[in-house]
Write a structure and sequence with these properties.
This protein is globular. The chain is 27% helix and 31% strand. It is α+β, with helices and mostly antiparallel strands. The strands form four sheets. It has a four-stranded antiparallel β-sheet with strand order 4-5-3-8. The chain has a three-stranded antiparallel β-sheet with strand order 10-1-12, with no helix packed on it. The two termini are 23 Å apart. 21% of the residues are buried. It has helices spanning 34-40, 43-51, 62-68, 74-83, 120-126, 141-154, and strands at 14-21, 29-33, 54-60, 86-90, 96-102, 105-107, 114-116, 131-133, 156-158, 165-169, 173-177, 186-192. The protein is built from six helices and twelve strands. It binds fe (ii) ion (FE2). Residues 2, 4, 175 line the site of fe (ii) ion.
C-alpha cells in the first residue's frame, strides 16, 4: 500500500482509475485510509516516524538521467533538483546521486488529523536498499511487519467490473494491487491535480 509518487516532492493530488477490462480473477485494486492507518500504529512507531524522516537515495547513470530529464546540462539538472527539494551529487563519471527526504506522516488537508501516507512499503519490498531513515539508519524489520499487518487489516478490495471508475484522494488514501495471472486486466490510470477544490 502506498501514496502515489511520495518518493518525490510534487505528488499528484488525485488519481483516477478506469477499468477497460477486468482480470479473469484476482487483480483487485486495494485501498485504505491513511488517517485510520495512523490511528492503528503503536505509539513507539508513531514516535519513531515523527522523529525520523525517510530518505530515498538513488544512483542514476549519465545516459539514464540525460534521457529521463531530457537534458545533458548539469546546471539545468541542478535547478530541477532544487525545485523538487532533492539533493544532487555528481560523481566523476557523471552518474548522479539523488537524495529526497520526506516525512512518513503528514497533516491532513484540513490540518486536523495526522495521515500515514508514503511510498515506504513498496519501496522496502521492491528496492529495499534505496530507503533508510534520514540519519542512514535502517527501518527496523519489526516496524515493517507492524505496518504490513495494519495495511492488510484495514484494506478494502475493489473487484473491477468493466467501465468502473475509481477516484482516489492521493493526500489521504493509500492504494495497492493484488497479484493476478491472466493477461486480461486492462486498467487505465491518470494522475492529476483537480481543477476544483476538494
Ligand atoms: Fe501506485
Amino acid at each position: 500500500m502506498h501514496g502515489e509518487m511520495y518518493y518525490q516532492q510534487n505528488i499528484p493530488l488525485m488519481l483516477w482509475f478506469f477499468c477497460a477490462n477486468p482480470p479473469l480473477e484476482d487483480g483487485e485494486t486495494t485501498v485504505c485510509d491513511g488517517r485510520q492507518f495512523f490511528n492503528q500504529i503503536s505509539s513507539s512507531t508513531k514516535e519513531l516516524f515523527s522523529k525520523n524522516k525517510l530518505k530515498f537515495t538513488v544512483r542514476i547513470f549519465k545516459e539514464d538521467w540525460q534521457k529521463k530529464y531530457q537534458t545533458n546540462n548539469l546546471n539545468t539538472l541542478e535547478e530541477m533538483c532544487q525545485k523538487n527539494n532533492t539533493h544532487l551529487t555528481v560523481n566523476d563519471d557523471q552518474s548522479i546521486i539523488l537524495e529526497y527526504i520526506s516525512s512518513a506522516i503528514i497533516p491532513s488537508r484540513c490540518g486536523k488529523y495526522q495521515v500515514f501516507i508514503n511510498s515506504l512499503l513498496p519501496t522496502k519490498q521492491l528496492s529495499p536498499k534505496i530507503l533508510k531513515f534520514e540519519d542512514d539508519s535502517e527501518i527496523p524489520e519489526d516496524v515493517l511487519c507492524e505496518l504490513n499487518e495494519i495495511a492488510e487489516k484495514i484494506t478494502t478490495e475493489i473487484s473491477w467490473q468493466k467501465r468502473d471508475i475509481l477516484m482516489i484522494d492521493n493526500t489521504r488514501i493509500l492504494h495497492g494491487r493484488r497479484g493476478f495471472a491472466d493477461d486480461q486486466r486492462d486498467i487505465y490510470i491518470r494522475l492529476c491535480s483537480p481543477a476544483f477544490s476538494f
